[in-house]
Amino acid sequence: MVEQEADEILKDADVADVAFLVVGDPFGATTHSDLVLRAVKAGISYRVIHNASIMNAVGCCGLQLYNFGETVSVVFWTDTWKPESFYDKIKRNRLNGMHTLCLLDIKVKEQSVENLIKGRKIYEPPRYMSVNQASEQLLEIIQNRRGQSEKLALSEDTICVGLSRVGAEDQKILAGPLKEMASAELGGPLHSMIISGHLHPLEIDMLKLFAVSEASFENLKMTDSSTFTS
Amino acid sequence: MVEQEADEILKDADVADVAFLVVGDPFGATTHSDLVLRAVKAGISYRVIHNASIMNAVGCCGLQLYNFGETVSVVFWTDTWKPESFYDKIKRNRLNGMHTLCLLDIKVKEQSVENLIKGRKIYEPPRYMSVNQASEQLLEIIQNRRGQSEKLALSEDTICVGLSRVGAEDQKILAGPLKEMASAELGGPLHSMIISGHLHPLEIDMLKLFAVSEASFENLKMTDSSTFTS
Q1: Any idea where the domains of chain A sit in the sequence?
Q2: What ipTM did this prediction achieve?
Q3: I want to staple A120 with a disulfide (CB 3.0 to 4.6 A). Which of A23, A115, A210, B2 is the partner?
């Protein structure tokens, strides 16, 4: 929406102060860079007020921020479109021992194909991907890749973290193997998810505070964590 | 210092509210996880208030946060101790097309060897690594590696970004090749530095706003950026 309304936002910004409020940090999204570039081009000075962002607030689960690799986006699959590209990024991070923050898809102000064709400005209810949905998509990819006899970068037992409403009073964090994340109860949106990489003992101690079941962490050394460590 | 004073901080926290203020986000540092674990062990509940952190505020230079790989720490070299491990992490990020945030060393409350031996609690003046110093160390590593006829992951011409006092009124951002960063004027601490990976056109447009010299960005496609792209 910022894309379409950039000119509107900047219209009087040369003579009056204009503020543009965003969720998280202003530079989490490409479109906000675009707004800055338009402002500068129009000779309008700007000032950025930084804020906590999910990109750093995820540290609350105990996984260290400097052990994260590239952040990935997990998109809603449809019947005909099931991209797996985020798996390959998670794999690359895992091969380097790094954790992966997965930002889960948000669909707001979407039109159905029918309404789009008929030009009716009727929007579907907003959808926010849950950790359960993201986990199921990941489990399906693992199944697919297993069929291709590819060396797997993660499995049903890989330790993951589900986070919801981080920063809010009712935030929730759950840690456990991927297969448990498919049914973990995290409540309403927004959700985020982390696929762990190599786990430091202190990180394991922190994750245990949020364990779906303590048992999952007991055999950690012998099973998953040793497969892909740096 | 938190390490030594954790018990002091938590002493009366079971009967009164205790706040522990930090620079940046509370979970940027391992030691703060340790404080949480001690609190939980002592049956003391805790709540985290997130904040902007250099880990996400660096986005103000226009490089996209989701294109960053592992964050590295650059430590002060001494005459006898010149670790190069951060170079290898930068290399790994570059090979994957990712940017690298370099957190620069801070030395506060350090004792000289003499004062340490004699048990004198006299502390050296605080030292904060500048982008100039970090650049010089990196240039020296590049020289060393070139001697070993290793395929270089970065060169004197790799586009870097120097940032100082991010978030403050007098923050400063400069972008240019590494060799220019060795003498870039960024003023007082704290400094941070980014080694770019693969640059998206929008990212280049943003960096140009902070260019030491426009010329450095003109031949970008033909020289550095194509060497290590995903």
Answers
A1: 2-41, 54-218
A2: 0.86
A3: A115
